[in-house]
Amino acid sequence: MQPFTIVSGAAIPFMRANVDTDVIVRIERLTSLPKDQLGPFAFESLRYLPDGSADPACILNAERFRHAPFLLAGDNFGCGSSREGAVWALMCLGIRAVIAPSYGDIFYANCFQNGMLPIRLPLDRIEALAARCADGSALTVDLRTQTIQCSDGGPQPFAIDATRREALLGGLDAIGLTLRDDALIRAWQDKDRVQRAWAWNSVRA
């Protein structure tokens, strides 16, 4: 998993509320495509016209936001079904962090398992960021200091769970975090084999 430390770039002011995972990526795309080919199909109902051409009115298609690493969104982003593919599609689109007031719980957890940073900020602070970034001006998100920096303002702090922050900084999913304690796990197993040999004999059987 790619670590997240400091990322800079444009931020798409996609200030919609209640964007569900089916809007982010349709379920049929997940059954027919590998995860690294989902980028063209992220938000496809919004990005494309009925004839398949790009909708010039869609902010996601604006040239100044091409390859933008940040998405600014409204309340309850990523609600709906438990679809890890929604995170995969966003990451294939180039998104490394989403900044929203609130998230669907499962989507929020899936972000951390795939190296994406979901930041929670009050709506008024996000709207201020959206106004500053509307012309394609860059943001810098520093997970080490837990700050967001605009080109024309001071750093803004954000909160994040300490364990999840550590995992993102190290590029570790849940399995990776567990394996850091491999020596402790093996020591416990060795001790338990002595104390409860019957349990380990039954496992081997």
Question: Would you spell out the secondary-structure blueprint of this structure?
Answer:
Blueprint: E1 6-13, H1 21-24, H2 27-32, H3 44-47, E2 70-72, H4 85-92, E3 97-100, H5 105-113, E4 117-120, H6 123-133, E5 138-142, E6 147-150, E7 156-157, H7 162-170, H8 174-179, H9 182-195, H10 197-204
Parallel strand pairs: 1-2, 2-3, 3-4
Antiparallel strand pairs: 1-5, 5-6, 6-7
Helix pairs in contact: 9-10
Radius of gyration: 20 Å
> Considering DSSP H and I runs of 4 or more, what fraction of the residues is helical?
25-40%
Strand order across the largest sheet: 4-3-2-1-5-6-7
The poorly predicted ranges are none
- The CATH architecture of the largest domain comes to Alpha-Beta Barrel
Number of domains: 2
Assign the CATH topology of the largest domain.
Aconitase, domain 4
Give me the secondary-structure category: alpha/beta
CATH class category name of the largest domain: Alpha Beta
Find the count of extended strands (DSSP E, 2+ residues): 7
What global shape is seen? globular
Strand-and-helix sequence, N→C? Answer: EHHHEHEHEHEEEHHHH
Q: Average pLDDT across residues? A: 91
Largest sheet: 7 strands, mixed
Distance between the termini: 36 Å
**% residues in beta strands:** 5-15%
